[in-house]
């Protein structure tokens, strides 16, 4: 439900304006989310195919990001759905997973 909260209801704290901070937040969340999920599954199922795991996590993360945007579009009067958010989600997940694969490959 936190994703449906309106940022305008939170008291304003003076801050500097960062261009595209919304997209940076989306990217960062999905980057971290994918890394955490990847590492958890690798530790709990070490013999699972890393490529299949990467595809699985990316699919789930991308679908989740898309569904959240669709829900915002149809059910939230104070939030807007943006394709840019979906793109940032997918990019964050992809970069996080590529980092995981790179680090696993270097360990071998």
UniProtKB/TrEMBL annotation:
Transmembrane segments: 24-42, 54-74, 86-104
Record domain VanZ-like: where: 22-102
Domain of life: Bacteria
The keyword Transport appears for this protein: no
Assigned keywords, A-Z: Membrane, Transmembrane, Transmembrane helix
Name of this chain's protein: VanZ like family protein
């Amino acid at each position: 439900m936190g994703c449906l909260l309106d940022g305008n209801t939170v008291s304003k704290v003076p801050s500097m304006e960062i261009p595209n901070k919304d997209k940076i937040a989306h990217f960062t969340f999905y980057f971290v989310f994918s890394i955490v999920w990847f590492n958890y599954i690798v530790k709990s199922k070490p013999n699972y195919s890393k490529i299949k795991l990467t595809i699985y996590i990316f699919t789930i993360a991308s679908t989740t990001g898309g569904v959240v945007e669709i829900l915002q579009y149809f059910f939230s009067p104070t939030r807007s759905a943006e394709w840019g958010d979906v793109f940032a989600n997918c990019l964050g997940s992809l970069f996080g997973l590529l980092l995981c694969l790179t680090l696993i490959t270097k360990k071998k």
